[in-house]
C-alpha cells in the first residue's frame, strides 16, 4: 500500500486502518454475521458516519486492501520496463499477492469469507471489477495492442489465477502452472 505523504492523508489512512483492524478482530472473534457496523465503529472509537466515509459497506471492511490490489495489477502493466513482456510482469505481481494472502494468519480470514454468502458475492463482484480494470490497462498499452476481447480474457485469466493459486495446496506451483497456460493464451492472441 502506498503511504500518503501529507499529514491529513496520513491521519485518514491511520483511521481507515484502525477501523479495518477493529472490524477484522471482531469478525474473527465473534463471526462475521454476529458483528454489526455499530459494533465496529465502537471498537474503533469512531462515528458510524466516519466508518462509512472510509468503507462503503460491511463487506468492504473485510476486503480493505481492495483498491491497492486493483492498482497493483494495473501498475504491473503500466509501470513495467520498456519492452518487458506483459505476462511475466503480471505473473510477478500475482505471485507477490498470493504470497501475501497465503501468509501465516490468513487462513481464518479466508475460511470466514468462504463461510459467508455475502462475502463470497462481494469477492466475486470485486474480481469482475479488477478484471475490467486490468483489461483496460492492457488495452490502453500501445505496445501491446490486443483486441478488447483478448484484453478482457487475459485479465480474467490473471484474476482467476490469483484465486486458484490462493486455494491450492502449493500456491507457488499453482501460479507457475496457471501462468504457463496464460502465456500460451496470450501468444495465441499475437499477430
> Span from first to last CA?
37 Å
What is the subunit organization of this protein? single chain
Instruction: Count helical runs.
Output: 10
Q: Could you say which structural class the secondary elements and strand pairing correspond to?
A: mainly alpha
Estimate the strand proportion: under 5%
- Helix and strand element order: HHHHHHHHHH
* Mean pLDDT across residues: 91
Sheet bearing the most strands, described?
Answer: none
Strand tally: 0
Notes on the structure:
76% of the residues lie in helices and 0% in strands. The chain is built from 10 helices and no strands. Helix 1 (7-30) crosses helix 2, helix 5 packs parallel to helix 8 and helix 6 packs antiparallel against helix 10. It starts with 6 loop residues before the first helix and ends with a helix.
Q: What is this structure, in a nutshell?
A:
The chain is an all-alpha fold.
Amino acid at each position: 500500500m502506498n503511504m500518503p505523504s501529507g499529514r491529513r492523508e496520513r491521519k485518514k489512512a491511520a483511521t481507515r486502518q484502525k477501523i479495518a483492524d477493529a472490524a477484522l478482530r471482531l469478525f474473527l472473534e465473534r463471526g462475521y454475521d454476529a458483528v454489526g457496523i455499530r459494533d465496529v465503529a465502537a471498537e474503533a472509537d469512531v462515528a458510524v458516519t466516519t466508518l462509512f466515509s472510509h468503507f462503503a459497506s460491511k463487506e468492504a471492511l473485510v476486503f480493505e486492501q481492495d483498491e491497492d490490489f486493483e492498482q497493483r495489477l494495473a501498475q504491473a502493466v503500466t509501470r513495467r520496463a520498456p519492452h518487458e513482456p506483459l505476462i511475466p510482469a503480471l505473473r510477478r505481481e500475482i505471485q507477490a499477492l498470493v504470497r501475501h494472502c497465503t501468509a501465516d494468519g490468513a487462513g481464518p480470514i479466508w475460511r470466514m469469507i468462504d463461510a459467508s454468502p455475502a462475502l463470497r458475492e462481494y469477492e466475486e463482484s470485486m474480481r469482475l471489477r479488477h478484471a475490467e480494470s486490468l483489461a483496460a490497462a492492457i488495452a490502453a498499452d500501445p505496445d501491446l495492442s490486443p483486441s478488447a476481447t483478448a484484453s478482457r480474457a487475459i485479465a480474467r485469466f490473471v484474476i482467476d489465477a490469483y484465486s486458484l493459486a490462493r486455494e491450492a495446496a502449493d500456491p507457488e506451483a499453482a501460479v507457475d502452472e496457471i501462468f504457463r497456460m496464460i502465456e500460451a493464451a496470450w501468444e495465441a492472441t499475437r499477430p
